[in-house]
Fold:
Amino acid sequence: MTDAAPRRGRGRPSRTQTEAGPATRDRILEAAREEFSERGYEKTSVRGIAKAAGVDSALVHHYFGTKEQVFEAAIEVAFAPALAAPAAVEEGPLDGVGERLTRFIFGVWENPATRTPLLAIVRSAVNNEAAAAVFRRLIATQLLRRIAQRLDLPDAELRAELAAAQLVGIAMLRYVIKVEPLASADPEQIIGRVAPVVQGHLTNP
Structure:
């Protein structure tokens, strides 16, 4: 009679699960984005994410850690298109940076494929402080600081934050709260009015 195989410790993923690799990790991440989008941060649980991904909840912890860390990984992927914004700053002369940045950000919001995950992020950040803290950290380190570095001007970080506040505020009113007539206005009309203000924040004395 052969010895029985050793039992796996409670709450730990099996070797087969952990060896599943990137495909399993990506599946968990996709499930997390969908769960956060549909339920918001507070109503989403690690167990729910695991169920949606078809894995044990221990595997979610294995790859990502806490729910906050899962959320951060999920929104970083969802927010990736917007994180390319700093490149728009350096693509041309500084006197045109306001229009380039404004046009880039509105391009991300106007695209349904990138708008949907952004809406989920913003809604979670508005309704939950833990989610807001993750969002602020991502914005500060991955977006604003990089824009400020490209400006190379006095008070660059404050300038970048003021420009971002202008753009985020308008995005909130247009895409989240849907205040009319802003929500239905032509994007080119909005860009034409907002870009000079963003330019002023970034480069005016």
Notes: The mean pLDDT is 80. The longest helix spans residues 129-151. The CA atoms of residues 71 and 181 lie 33 Å apart.
